[in-house]
Amino acid sequence: MKKSFFLTAILLVAAGNVVTTVFAQENIRAMISNFENMGVKEMDIIRNNYPIIKKINRSTTSIQIASSPDLEQQIENAFRQDSENAIHAIEQKKDGKVYMFFRYKSSTYSYTSSNDIINMIESNETKHRIGLYSFFFNVVPDDFRFPLIGFVNTAIGSHQGLQAGFVNTTLVDFRGAQIGFVNSTLNDFSGLQAGFFNMTINELKGAQVGFVNTAGFGQQQGAQVGFVNLMRKGIKGVQVGFVNITGGGVQGSQIGFLNYADSITGVPIGFISIVKKGGYRALEVSANEWYPVNLSFKIGVPRLYSFVSGSYNNNFENQFAIGYGLGSLLPLSKKLYFNPEFSNTQPIGKDFQLQFHSFVGNIGYQLSPHLQIAAGPSVTHVYSDKSDYFYKPAYSIVNHQINSHNRLVVGARIALGVNF
Which of 42, 237, 244, 310 maximizes the CB count within 10 A of its CB? Predict the structure, then answer.
C-alpha cells in the first residue's frame, strides 16, 4: 500500500511538471498555432556556437506576417497573460517599435513589431535534460538553480551561484564562485575562480586565483593571481605572478619575474618585461668611475625598464663583473630626457665579496630615433666583506670611507645607446 501510494505520488509530481511546462506559455503557444496558417513559416535546427562545445540543439519556428493594431494587441495580451510563469521577461517600446522576449524552462519566445511587420520566434530544446545530484558526482542541466557541492561537479549548460569540489566544470556560462582543484568554464565567466588550475575559454569578468590561470578569446576584466597567468586576448586589470603572458593589450599592470604583453597602458614590474608594441629595448655601451667598459641590455617600457649588464676593468683583481638594475626615461622636451637608474654590480670571483650599489642621474639627448647619448653624476655605496679592502675608482668627486666595510663614492657616467 505504501509502495503504491509512493509511486502514485511520483507520477502525480511528474505529471504536474509536464502540465506546468505545457501550459506555462499556453496563450503565446495558441497565438503561434493560429499564425502558422496565416503567414510564412520556416522550420530549422540551429546551434549556438561556443568555443570547444556546442550548446544544446534547439528547434526554431520563425513567423513573419503583416501587422495590424488588432493582431499586435492580441499578441501583447498573450505575452502578458503568460508573464507570471516566465523565468525571464523583457518588454520594450521605443520609437513605435515593440520588442518582447520571454524565457521559460525549455522554450523562448520573442515578438517584434516594426514597419508594419510582425515577427515571432519560438525556440525549443530538442534534447532531454538529465540530472544527477549525489554530493559526490553531480551533473545538472542548464540553469540549475542550486549550488553544486561534491567531488566532481558538471553543469551541462549555464550555471550560477557556487561550485565547490575537486573538479568543477561549466559547459557554457558561469556566474558566481568556482572553488576546487580544477575549475573550468567553457564560455563566459563572471566571479571568482580559486584553485590549482583555473580556465575560462571566452570572457572573464572577475578574478582567477591559483597556480595556473588561463583565460581565452574575449576581453578580460579583473585580475589573475598565480604562479603562471595566461591571457589569449587583452586584459583590463592586473596580472600578478612569476610568469604573466597576455596575447593582447594590458590596461593596467603586470607584476612578476617575466612579463609579456602585446601592448600596455600601465607599467609592467618585473625582472624581464617584454612589450611588443610601444615597448623599450636597447643596447648601451657606457663608462664610469669603476669600469671603463660596460655593456647593458635594457627591456621594458620607457617609464620603467630593467637591464642586465657586463663590466670589465683590467686593473681590478677580478676583472669582470655582472649587474642588474632598473631605470626610467622621463621626457623633458622633444629630444631631452631625464634618465635615473638604480643598479647593483658585483665582480665575478670566489675569494671575496664586493658589491656596488649605484644611483645615476643621467641627462639624455636623442641624436636620432634610434640613437641617444646620456651622461650624469653617480652615487655609489660600496660594500666589502673583507675589512679595509676596496677597489680604487679611476676618478671621483667624493671618496669617503664610512667604516672598514663600507665606502661612499661620487663620480660620473657617460653612455651611448641604440634602441630597437
Answer: 244
